[in-house]
Amino acid sequence: MGISGLPASAAMLAGGPRGGDCPVAIIEDGYGPNQRVTFGTLATIAGLAAERGVRSPAVVVVGDVVTLSPLHPRYRKHQLAPDEPRSGRLIPEPSRKAHS
Predict the structure, then answer these.
(1) According to the CATH classification, is domain 6-76 in 3.40.50.1820?
(2) What is the pLDDT of residues 68-91, one digit of tens each?
(3) From the CA atom positions of the chain, what is the Rg in Å?
C-alpha cells in the first residue's frame, strides 16, 4: 500500500473482516533524522495522512502489530513482564561477541 493509493487501499481493507477499527501506522523516513509516525485506523488513516501531509518514503503497517510500538498510545497494555521472552526488537541491538 503506497501513500498515493492510501485512501482507496484503506477503504478496501476496512470493508474486509478486520473492519475500520484495525490499527494502522505510517512511518515516514524510517531511521532517518526526520522520522515521523502517524497512527490511526483503517477508517481514519487517509484523513490523518492528508492532514499531516504524509509523504514518501514511507512504510504503511496494518494490523494489531501496530499497537506493539512503544510510540503507540495503547502500548502500555501490551508490555511484557520482565521475565517474559521478547520475540522482536524495534531497534536492532548491537552485535554481541561470544565470550570465551
Answers:
(1) no
(2) 887 887 765 545 444 444 333 344
(3) 16
